[in-house]
Amino acid sequence: MEIKIVKQILEWNEDVSKAVIDELADKKVALINVMGSPGAGKTSLITQIINRLKDKYAIGVIEGDIAGQIDADKIDAMGIPVVQLQTDGACHIEAMSIQNMLPMFDLDKLDVIFVENIGNLVCPAEFNIGEDLRVAILSIPEGDDKVEKYPLMFSTTDALVLNKFDMLPYFDFDVERVEKNEKDANPDALIFKVSNKTGDGLDKLISWLSAKISEKTGK
Amino acid sequence: MHELSIVEGILEAVIPEVEKYNVNKVLSIKLRIGELSGVVPECINYYFDIASRDTVAEGAKIVIEKVPVTIKCPDCGYDGVIKIGHFKCPECGGTGFKIVSGKEYYVDSVEAE
Fold it and tell me: Mean pLDDT of all residues in chain A?
């Protein structure tokens, strides 16, 4: 006999991500999901954001890595509450992991948590983790074809950060191609051209993030 | 590499449902998977064989129905399929549309006895 089921395969992930959304709405804490390839500059972007926003907001960080805690140590050295999530080989972070990590923070005292997802342009995009914003980082040396190659990542992101923009003269990277493809993939996405190293372009990104965080926290 | 999570999700969707019908064996499971979802069918089969051992779904065949990416264009009214990687309306070239289907990821039905 045929039994009709019609059930989302990742329904449990959707359910848990809704629970995370509810909890963080109650506590007025923004959750920002930072995604990109290994080496794109996720950790250095987060540290730049911390430097520029730590006097305005109470910031926490969840560092996702397959192994080790190199990134968490960097954030910890800045005096920011950080939890290292080791996925033991898994290619992405799931909402359940975020739900399990939230009790490790004093949510009453926090305004925003940045989640550094696993370095990967494929799987992290498929799992909602209860985030308010998705930020995808693409660095110039990675090449200008990535938006076309990884449609889900770039069609679901709220912002595309083109990092290492100071490296542009050294690579055959067609910025217009990327901008056009990103607008095609997601007309609502904002594009920021930055260099974490020189700090160029970060002001615009920071003021956008700051407005979004304030929307959530009311501060 | 998250096909194991997906397989666990499949079993969680299927087993409680079929238990309601007092079946002995699940013969096949039909999935509907959007072309944007990036799931590798071969990996699903491989992990499913392992994860379904000693369950009512052991040995079931996984049947995957791919769902194409479709859009509804607000500019010209086009309502239909587009190719992955060409996020443009095939009729008018517009880009201001929302994706209607192609991100699906669900168990449609099972065949059981």
Answer: 93
Cross-chain residue pair B9–A181, CB shorter than 8 Å: no
Give the span between the Cα atoms of B34 and B25, in whole angstroms: 27
Spell A42-68 as b/e; 16+ CB within 10 A means b: bbbbbbbbbebbeeebbbbbbbbbeee
Sign, Cα dihedral of B85, B89, B90, B92: negative
Task: Indicate the CATH number for domain B3-112.
Answer: 3.30.2320.80
Enumerate residues 130 to 159 of chain A having a beta carbon within 8 A of any beta carbon in chain B. Answer: 148-149, 151-152, 155
Indicate if ipTM > 0.90: no
Residue A154 lies in a domain: yes
Would residue A5 count as lying in a domain?
A: no
Domain annotation covers residue A162: yes
Judging contacts by C-beta atoms under 8 Å, the chain A residues touching residue B6 are: 9-10
Q: What is the CATH number of the domain that holds A196?
A: 3.40.50.300
pTM: 0.78
Q: Which residue range forms the structural domain that includes residue A127?
A: 11-217
Residue B54 CB neighbours (<10 A) = 6
Domain count, chain A: 1
Mean pLDDT across B108-113: 94
Model pLDDT for residues B24-41, shown as the tens digit of each residue: 999 999 999 888 776 777
Nearest to B106 among A6, A122, A152 (CB): A6
Which one of A2, A4, A5, A94 makes the best mutation probe of the B interface by having the most chain B beta carbons within 10 Å? A5
Q: What is the pLDDT of residues A79-107, one digit of tens each?
A: 999 999 887 777 888 898 899 999 999 99
Q: Which of B6, B36, B112 sits opposite A1 (nearest CB)?
A: B112
Q: Is the pLDDT of residue B1 over 60?
A: no
